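TODO from last week: model CAAX prenyl protease.
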Amino acid sequence: MVETIFDLPVEKQIFYAVLGFSWTVYLWEAYLSYRQRRIYKSTTHVPQELGKIMDSETFEKSRLYQLDKSNFSFWSGLYSETEGTLILLLGGIPFLWGVAGSVTTRLGFSPEYEITQSLVFLTLATLFSALTGLPWSLYNTFVIEEKHGFNQQTLGFFLKDAVKKFVVTQCILLPVTSLLLYIIKIGGDYFFIYAWLFTLAVSLVLVTIYADYIAPLFDKFTPLPEGELKTDIEAMAKSISFPLTKVYVVEGSKRSSHSNAYFYGFFKNKRIVLFDTLLEDYSPLNKSGEPQPEPPESDDTSSEAKAKPKNKKQGCNNPEILAVLGHELGHWKLGHTVKNIVISQMNSFLCFSLFAALIGRKELFVAFGFDDSQPTLIGLMIIFQFIFSPYNELLSFCLTVLSRRFEFQADAFARGMGKASELYSALIKLNKDNLGFPVADWLFSMWHYSHPPLLERLRALGNVKQD
């Protein structure tokens, strides 16, 4: 008689179901990537529809860049999936929990100090993740990004940055985790409500302090100088009642020549942040061959960034920047930010509620090698990371679809402000600067793209002609 998975003990069924679903997702992602790689390999000439907006040299550069990224993603994804599988099969999680217990015992803590052991476990787990991920990050930065002209970092800057990120992460993660575990333990029957409220408060605090206190640890933020651009930004913000208080330029060029812009803040305290690589008049990457003024004093990390710019003309002119910001402010005016927060918190409350219903199931712990104990942190990991994985995949896809809808709406908002032509040209420039490949497999883009493909956005903006 052939034994099936349904004849196994329930804990074995759980284990193999989790492992099977993980590989199913990986194979699905690998199939989608294969479809997109086929597009990169076969589309070697600029399609007729793109002839007026993309030259053949840029098209070929973007094709080769995206092909390299796709190949790298395949191998790094295969490694990650294999590593995760081996950790589960070889009992890596209970082993690391035992190591954390030995460390806490040597520090003089008894086994009753579960939260202390949890913090040691978390530190060891994040350290392991950082070390195993380091070679892949190094290759991505100093081979792929370097090869295609985006990397602006030295090895020393990169390593110092990685250590700083790890330390800052631990300074936030460990206190928050210890308080969350404590709330779960003393919260009684309604602990999931208190845990949800706590995580809500933490997320709001982090959003509030991130740009003022955390981001400046890694990048230099300077106020946008007085001038036409700042005046126009303030006037545009005032025209839609956006409560703008400050506009910053962040020195993104010391890391990469990729560009970005965003706003942050709550209520009447909104700030806009522009990457210097987005600004045609400010990007250091545009100053090659020009007489250079004496550089202003900067922190010691900035001096470690590469001095030589790698790209020629980059960024957007002032009207195009205003169009990009019109799109970003459209997200605020149309309530996209609030909607995303509401969806996130509804999801968080649902997950904590289900966690409360499942945390007492011993078979969940036994399935992953915890026969004699049921640590709360391990329960959080098992339920949120493994048991909820099918739900997380479905939610992620739905949010991707919603994000694309929001992007079209924000583009339409900028068009309504009379900035369709400028946004049209800005999208083309940004696609060129970031070497975005404008041809996508329909299934790959449907599953992965949080922003619509370039052509779809240009069509939606209308028949706007470039100057």
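Done. The chain has a mean pLDDT of 88.
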